[in-house]
């Protein structure tokens, strides 16, 4: 089972309906026939998303929490800074 916070359908991978061999086959076909540019886009989005799980960031977050310091999420803060709102 995919972790929904790590796989965003059509952004960094594909989710398929559990138990549906046809849906799985369709998604595998998408990946296996994708243009190199599309695969690169999936890869780059995956790398961006997993940045939040970097061991050094995780340790920094826990150390800040233990010290009672504010925790700043660089990925979320960066996304908010570029938000059109």
What does this structure look like?
The chain is an all-alpha fold and 85 residues long. It is 56% helix and 0% strand. It has four helices and no strands. It has helices at residues 21-32, 36-50, 55-67, 74-81.
Short characterization:
With 85 residues, this protein is mostly helical. Helix content is 56%, strand content 0%. The chain is elongated.
- Helix-residue proportion: 55-70%
Count of strand segments: 0
Strand content: under 5%
Rg is: 17 Å
Helix-strand layout with pairing:
Blueprint: H1 21-32, H2 36-50, H3 55-67, H4 74-81
Features:
85 residues; disordered C terminus; mainly alpha; 56% helix
């Amino acid at each position: 089972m995919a972790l929904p916070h790590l796989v965003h359908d059509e952004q960094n991978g594909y989710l398929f309906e559990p138990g549906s061999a046809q849906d799985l086959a369709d998604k595998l076909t998408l990946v296996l026939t994708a243009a190199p540019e599309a695969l690169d886009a999936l890869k780059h989005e995956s790398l961006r998303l997993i940045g939040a799980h970097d061991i050094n960031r995780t340790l920094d977050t826990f150390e800040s929490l233990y010290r009672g310091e504010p925790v700043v999420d660089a990925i979320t803060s960066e996304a908010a800074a570029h938000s059109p709102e």
